[in-house]
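[audit] Reproducing an earlier prediction to check determinism. Same input, same settings, fresh worker. If the tokens differ from the archived copy the diff job will pick it up downstream; this log only records the rerun itself.
[audit] input (126 residues):
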Amino acid sequence: MLLNEYFRQIQVLVDRCAIVQESNIVYEARSHDRGFIHGELKLTSGKTLAVREFVKTTSIVDRQMYTYQYMTAENQLVFRYDNTGHHRKLNLSTFPHHKHDGSETNVIVSAAPNLAEVLQEVADHL
């Protein structure tokens, strides 16, 4: 998949999502097959979803880094998925993939969701 195709897929997903009121997602090509996506989605509930992905596109999309952080209107963490390696000591079976559920300290096992799956979880949460 070409990098621009992936960027376009993400933008279409965001544009079609009924719970997204406003988007300020930025797409940065770092090379012909590497890019950085970052920004924030303002949701109809007043909550926000911060999005960051560093991707490498070849025949597949490899999200080498991702963070999806869902916050209340009062900036309280609802959940965050990420794949940073800071929780190695927890010996999670999905390391480095994990989820902060309700607080920074409540770190649980999690597969690596994509943005569509996260948006569906947010919609189910509303």
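[audit] rerun output stored. Observation attached for the diff report: Residues 78 and 91 are 23 Å apart (CA to CA).
[audit] end
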